[in-house]
Design goal:
about 100 residues, alpha+beta, 5-stranded antiparallel β-sheet, 2 helices
Length: about 100
């Protein structure tokens, strides 16, 4: 059995519609399979089984769908950054005259 490095970690996983889900890896279930709990807005959702293969999936461009964090605070910092709109930058295309 390989060492269990994921139990207790928090995660985000990108969804196809451009949003993301959050949750926590609860515990190791079997070889390459973990129990995870996705967070719901009102109720605690039941545990789901997720394979390491699913956790390693990437988009067609090679971006990871799952991101793991040691603490809920680290994950919240990441999701706050994701949810903050980008600040537009104004670049002047006019050269100053002397």
């Amino acid at each position: 059995m390989m060492s269990d490095l994921l139990s207790g970690m928090y995660f985000t996983v990108d969804d196809e519609d451009g949003t993301y889900s959050t949750g926590q890896v609860i515990r190791h279930a079997a070889d390459d399979i973990y129990f995870v709990r996705f967070e719901g807005s009102e109720v605690t959702l039941p545990l789901e089984l997720v394979t390491i293969g699913e956790m390693l999936q990437t988009t067609d461009e090679g971006y990871k769908l799952w991101r793991f964090f040691d603490t809920v605070e680290e994950r919240d910092t990441w999701t706050d950054w994701l949810d903050t709109p980008s600040k537009p930058r104004v670049i002047s295309l006019v050269r100053p005259t002397k």
